[in-house]
Amino acid sequence: MFETLSTLGGGAQVHSVVLGGAGFIGSNLVRALLDRGHRVTVIDNLSRGQRQLLPDPDTTPLFSFIQANLADPRECEAAFEQSAVYPIWEIWHLAANSDIPAGVRDPNVDLHDTFLTTFESLRAASRHSVRVYHFASSSAVYGDWHGVPLRETLGPLRPISNYGAMKLASEAQICAAAEAFLGKANIHRFPNVVGVPATHGVIFDFIGRLARDPTRLVVLGNGTQQKAYLHVSDLVGAMLTVAGRETGPKIEILNVGAVDAGVTVRWIAESVVARVSSRAEIVFGEGDRGWLGDVPKFRYETERVHSYGWSPKLDSKAAVLRAIDDIARSRGL
Amino acid sequence: MFETLSTLGGGAQVHSVVLGGAGFIGSNLVRALLDRGHRVTVIDNLSRGQRQLLPDPDTTPLFSFIQANLADPRECEAAFEQSAVYPIWEIWHLAANSDIPAGVRDPNVDLHDTFLTTFESLRAASRHSVRVYHFASSSAVYGDWHGVPLRETLGPLRPISNYGAMKLASEAQICAAAEAFLGKANIHRFPNVVGVPATHGVIFDFIGRLARDPTRLVVLGNGTQQKAYLHVSDLVGAMLTVAGRETGPKIEILNVGAVDAGVTVRWIAESVVARVSSRAEIVFGEGDRGWLGDVPKFRYETERVHSYGWSPKLDSKAAVLRAIDDIARSRGL
């Protein structure tokens, strides 16, 4: 048994609640949902998200914004109580700590921001009879497989960061909720996602460093880390493709990503320098990890999502080059 | 890199802290560790455990007991502070909600008792430089695979109870801790375990019902649920075998269990009636699940632990018959 929009019946207004909707990926998703005619409510604590990335409810009547800390049981319930004035069709859960090193330093960060947001929003979903739940999981759930291609069927999973651990914990709790009350759960394991409005990540960091010192770009690690990247526009397209499917298992767990082998940090550094500050010297560090909990190299198998008729418009190189340009422009460079 | 007792050096006193040591499995483990000459500290909130299952510290000087709620950050830290008077070599984490249906009714039960006990004890392990962590995980992490043999390499895992979800969440957090600071983590996925001092489970329930009404045994479900069972004495033997290995991966994740196909609930009901109240009528319910979140039938692959030289002395039938007798005797039947 699973539920798709066609279950709702033609003509009814779809109400989508987007948790963490004021963040990088969330704000892109919100625009796409509004473009499709959904009613959209964003719940975000604005700890990393930004209110100005979202529409103005005065001029966009189908849009509402609620500031709340979803990890807090009372705040979460109050926010859902307010949202449920219009019955909620689906939850998109993109609220999480996005600063992996911060979570490595203090596990409480990912406990609260990455896991308890899931836990409390599922309790709210149960109380408000929400039947469809879409989740932003992560390739970080896999841990370091030393080059073994990452397929959804791998096990056992051994995440190496608290962030990855709390994403896997969230997946587990969503599965239990699907047994108990959800009609459909889509768990997307995100790759490295690039684009604007960037708030973190390697491209964002490099451009920030060059803005401070245009003569020198210091890179953590030796630059050999190699990963695939997906542009946020393609990611949103993938999630909407999966959400729109009329068939499939009740719990869908799938990798989302490009099909290519990715690019190295060295190539990204050179591309950023070429676009932003071509006379800068690049200074590499040592080792193949940018930080504790970083996975230096992985191949991401994405056949399942491609079999659903989605493929990215931009491969890793094109996605990174577009994101460099996006971010540079957003900073007036 | 991994750590075993030989790393500690000959002659040093091994200090084992057993979380949930006043419970069914924990109290059996505590006796085995004391028999091996370890110093043992039990931390238990006595919500389901019982103080009288444990030795008296006055007559067993190597044993200490601390009552604390491990899910509470302050209580957990205070208990570890007190334990660490003798440097802690290893943690055995067996504290959890053991009442799966209770956790299905209220997800907060498993959040606190099953997951936050793991989370907080790992933080304490980090602060007190504990390098070895043994964890009681569960076959419930797998969810319902409809008869596919459950191997450690299966994925993706979709637990169907909050209990299974919070055991998987615990595994994930332990893996992240192993990346950050642990020297060795052994994650045992327990099967159905039987024996005394039983506090729950199908045999315990059946004997309790017959004690109340010796003429009638009402069984939840139609009795066709089939599972393998392991006697607690064999389980403790398996854990100590794994703990004593000098080689192996830093994170060991393995199923522990018997090699047979198991026994049905109907066979257990008949065996209990034969031992306890031979004139009782057995009344079966409908459906193949005892409760929401119950997995009706599974085959448990345990080749990995057997390859380490351990095998159970009792198969499922023998384990269940012994446990029926154990429990009946403990109730004076």
Shape annotation of chain A: globular
Strand order of the largest sheet of chain A: 3-2-1-4-5-6-11
Largest sheet of chain A: 7 strands, parallel
Structural class of chain A: alpha/beta
State the CATH topology of the largest domain in chain A.
Rossmann fold
**Helix share bin of chain A:** 25-40%
Q: What portion of the residues of chain A fall into strands of 2 or more residues? A: 15-25%
CATH architecture name of the largest domain in chain A: 3-Layer(aba) Sandwich
Order of helices and strands of chain A: HEHEEHEHHEHEEHEEEHEEHEHH
* Average pLDDT number of chain A: 92
Q: What's the total helix number of chain A?
A: 11
Rounded radius of gyration of chain A (Å): 19 Å
Termini separation of chain A comes to 51 Å
**In the residues of chain A, how many domains can be counted?**
2
Explain how this protein is built.
The structure is a homodimer of 333-residue chains. With 333 residues, chain A is of the alpha/beta class. Helices cover 38% and strands 17% of the residues of chain A. The first copy, chain A, contains eleven helices and 13 strands. A seven-stranded parallel β-sheet of chain A has the order 3-2-1-4-5-6-11, with helices on both faces. In chain A, strands 7-10 form a two-stranded parallel ribbon. In chain A, strands 8-13 form a two-stranded parallel sheet. In chain A, strand 1, helix 2 (24-35) and strand 2 form a beta-alpha-beta unit. In chain A, helix 2 (24-35) crosses helix 8, helix 7 crosses helix 9 and helix 9 runs parallel beside helix 11. The radius of gyration of chain A is 19 Å and the shape is globular. The model of chain A has no long low-confidence stretch (mean pLDDT 92). Chain A binds chain B through residues 104, 107, 111, 115, 119, 122-123, 141, 143, 152-162, 164-166, 168-169, 171-173, 175-176, 178-180, 251, 253, 292-293, and chain B through 104, 107, 111, 115, 119, 122-123, 141, 143, 152-162, 164-166, 168-169, 171-173, 175-176, 178-180, 251, 253, 292-293.
